[in-house]
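Late entry, written up from scratch paper. The run itself happened at the end of the previous shift, but nothing got recorded in the book at the time, so transcribing now.
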Amino acid sequence: MRVSRLTILVLLAAASAVCQSKLPDELEGVGIEEKIGQPADLSLEFIAEDGYPVRLAEFFRKGRPVILNLVYYSCPSLCNLILNGQTDALREIPGTPGKDFEVVTISIDPSETFDLARRKRAAYLESYGRPAPGWHFLVDYRGNVKKLAEQVGFHYRYDERTRQYAHAAAIMILTPEGKPARYLYGVRFKPRDVRLALAEAAQSRGGFSVDRLLLFCFHYDPQARSYVLFATNFMRAGALLSTLVLAVVLVRLWRRDAQLLRSGEKAVR
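Output as recorded:
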């Protein structure tokens, strides 16, 4: 896959920041401003892959967490890398888009049409390899994608010289109420991170699942930008498990001793 100069600049932006050097002009104003817990406007409308307008609320009303992608379909490299990485991670986690969570992919390029979105959706559903009725590909309507991007802290810009959009490499996990719960960065996403981010976003709706149990042992580390083992809770869980095992052993021993005592009493009689 051909990697453009703009893509290379985006991927090197983090290193540039660490070295405290000035960002290239193409990347000025580009990046992620995490807005955890701040609601997005779910009344915003977009054009779905079938050509009809749809409100963002349509993908949140079923009480499921939502993976949000802001990309553009004619992107020569970076957007494809993000979507490919997301698809790889989704194959490795339990759950189905449309049943357990939703995926909403929206083009940041206002010139792109729903026909292109439909073709992109078909390509990625084929790559995903199983039915995913809850993965939606949308295009802009009346400039709403820019409004949504600002609300979730996804800052991008169009570069006139390269005729490409400069943007960060990330996906966002939103709660069923439309509030960002977690940002996952890069073009390769650990299946465990995606799974736990979805579980974390879904917590507001209650219920119990294996994923919620995993959250007891893992927490998100902003420095590592990944979910890591939470040693304290892990040790607590281990101590609790040990206590339960010990209790089971003691109960069995008590029952055995009681049975032997009763048997001895019967023999004496």
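The two ends are 88 Å apart (CA to CA).
(Scratch paper discarded after transcription.)
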